[in-house]
Design brief:
about 350 residues, alpha/beta, 8-stranded parallel barrel, two-stranded antiparallel sheet, about 10% strand, disordered N terminus, binds alpha-D-glucopyranose
Length: about 350
């Protein structure tokens, strides 16, 4: 048994497509590692099973100011999410641009009201909601964006913890279908060591008011599956881990205006045997970590940019969806109605091939 496991590890980590193999041959030859997905194992497992198929309401409340990235939240968007059959809405929020720079780092009540609106609109429709902290640029050591302000380096961590203290208290009486995700894509300045320490402090702040709400935590390097090995989860029975998966990156992000050099990737198709390996390798790695640690894992983001040809977006989307589900994990697509979107708000039209790829049989 042990040697079989070792062999499997080698296969997974080598992640090599057999030269000349067709996609079908590669699918047949690729091991499927299943995550810890027994829904009866714990409350966190039970909730992770209920997350089902989800969507990110991205690029609205996570822009520096709502509307900066062309999307404002409105009632019809929640109707669309519900009517498409999604079970979960992930709500990315840029709290850092709406809280004081000095202690006690008070979050602007008007902004809170806006987030309340989005959270409650989704809960009212029976959805699970994963509310996060996204784009605290300075905390990650990323460049600030237009309309953002600088805070002293020395307070970055304390301020993030104080924000969670406020957010958690504010939502403490909401339905258990509301989950908190501590921080989107820690990276750069947040080394694994710093992130592990900060996550522990953030969780402790949440737990002062929400002793048993399910909390989602992802690894460093932008929630990269390969960084799971460095993630030290706090001792807590109500945790779900999360990863993001955008491989093959030069396919999913071709032409993306926020990635330098991405226009050189325009015209890439998907998916051949080698690309398939880049999709399944990280998923197997994730599932293996989940099984070894008995922690459920949720794929909180995957998706492709609007300049990827639609034909290939649909193929990629269905393939990734199937590969995640084969491994006993649930997911949320990035995102609903912006540049990775599956719905076009201006024409009020679904991008049907993408909706089908996510939600069809
Ligand atoms: C991450 C970023 C988001 C970006 C997405 C796809 O979630 O936070 O802004 O659009 O990845 O690259």
């Amino acid at each position: 048994m042990k040697s079989f496991f070792n062999l499997m590890t080698v296969l997974i980590l080598s992640g090599c497509a057999t030269p000349g193999a067709s996609l079908q041959e590669q699918i047949a030859a690729t091991p499927v590692v299943v995550a810890s997905s027994d829904c009866s194992l714990s409350k966190a497992h039970a909730v992770s099973c209920k997350l089902g198929r989800g969507i990110n309401l991205g690029n609205a409340l996570d822009a520096p100011l709502e509307g900066d990235w062309g999307l404002r939240i409105s009632e019809p968007l929640f109707d669309r999410i519900a009517e498409a059959g999604f079970a979960t809405m992930r709500l990315p929020v840029r709290w850092s641009n709406h809280a004081d720079a000095t202690a006690p780092y008070t979050i602007d009540p008007e902004f809170f009201a806006r987030v309340d609106y989005a959270v409650d609109a989704a809960l009212k429709r029976g959805l699970y909601v994963v509310l996060n902290m996204q784009h605290y640029q300075q905390l990650n050591g990323d460049t600030l964006q237009e309309h953002e302000f600088v805070v002293p380096q020395a307070v970055l961590e304390d301020r993030a913890v104080a924000m969670w203290q406020q957010i958690a208290r504010h939502y403490q009486d909401r339905s258990p279908k509301l989950l908190f995700e501590l921080f989107n894509e820690p990276r750069r300045r947040l080394t694994a060591q710093k992130w592990n320490a900060l996550a522990e402090r953030m969780l402790a702040a949440v737990r002062t008011s929400n002793p048993d709400r399910v909390v989602v935590i992802g690894p460093g390097e932008s929630n990269n599956p390969k960084a799971l090995q460095h993630l030290i989860l706090p001792q807590d029975p109500y945790l779900i881990a999360t990863v993001h998966h955008y491989e093959p990156f030069d396919f999913t992000h071709q032409g993306a205006d926020f990635i330098p050099g991405a226009s050189a990737w325009l015209g890439r198709s998907c998916c051949n045997a080698a690309q398939y390996d880049r999709i399944t390798g990280p998923l197997n790695q994730t599932a293996q970590w989940s099984a070894a640690n008995r922690v459920p894992v949720w794929v909180g983001e995957f998706g492709s940019y609007e300049r990827v040809p639609m034909e290939y977006r649909a193929i990629y989307t269905r393939l990734v969806r199937d590969e995640i589900e084969k491994r006993g994990m649930r997911w949320a697509y990035w995102e609903l109605a912006s540049c990775f979107g599956i719905y076009d708000e201006s024409s009020r039209q679904w991008k049907t091939p993408l909706r089908e790829a996510l939600m069809g049989q």
